Amino acid sequence: MLTLASKLKRDDGLKGSRTSTTASDSTRRVSVRDRLLVKEVAELEANLPCTCKVHFPDPNKLHCFQLTVTPDEGYYQGGKFQFETEVPDAYNMVPPKVRCLTRIWHPNITETGEICLRMLFGD
């Protein structure tokens, strides 16, 4: 599923043979964000509950994905809620941006779908 993972493995294999030019090295560089996301997405997919599904519109862009949550208990039982996540380039220093695509009434979600949990991030 993770096509970026194969790219990273290929890049790591090329590190030992640094016979390429500087221009081709710059095309092979992978951001810290993408290196972190390969590991974290694999962990996410392995530990995701059955009521959640993750979807990558473009498998080569692990920094943009959608999460669908279908609660099987509680007040929102039977609902289907979609969230869009975008991980910024400065990830690990800057939190991901999450937006609820499904119109819902929740005290931490605005009418436009923005998640309001700034107190967790120290803003």
From TrEMBL:
Enzyme class: transferase
Catalytic residue positions: C116
Keywords annotated in UniProt: ATP-binding, Nucleotide-binding, Transferase, Ubl conjugation pathway
A Pfam family of this chain: UQ_con
GO biological process: protein neddylation
Enzyme Commission number(s) of this protein: 2.3.2.34
GO molecular function, one term: ATP binding
Catalysed conversion reaction: [E1 NEDD8-activating enzyme]-S-[NEDD8 protein]-yl-L-cysteine + [E2 NEDD8-conjugating enzyme]-L-cysteine = [E1 NEDD8-activating enzyme]-L-cysteine + [E2 NEDD8-conjugating enzyme]-S-[NEDD8-protein]-yl-L-cysteine
Keyword ATP-binding recorded: yes
Pathway where this protein functions: Protein modification; protein neddylation
PROSITE patterns linked to this entry: UBC_1, UBC_2
Chain spans, region Disordered: 1-29
UBC core domain segment(s): 32-123
Subunit and interaction comment: Interacts with UBA3 and RBX2. Interacts (N-terminally acetylated form) with (via DCUN1 domain) DCUN1D1, DCUN1D2, DCUN1D3, DCUN1D4 and DCUN1D5.
Function: Accepts the ubiquitin-like protein NEDD8 from the UBA3-NAE1 E1 complex and catalyzes its covalent attachment to other proteins. Together with the E3 ubiquitin ligase RNF7/RBX2, specifically neddylates cullin-5 (CUL5). Does not neddylate CUL1, CUL2, CUL3, CUL4A or CUL4B. Mediates neddylation of the CUL9-RBX1 complex.
Family membership noted in the UniProt record: Belongs to the ubiquitin-conjugating enzyme family.
Protein name: E2 NEDD8-conjugating enzyme
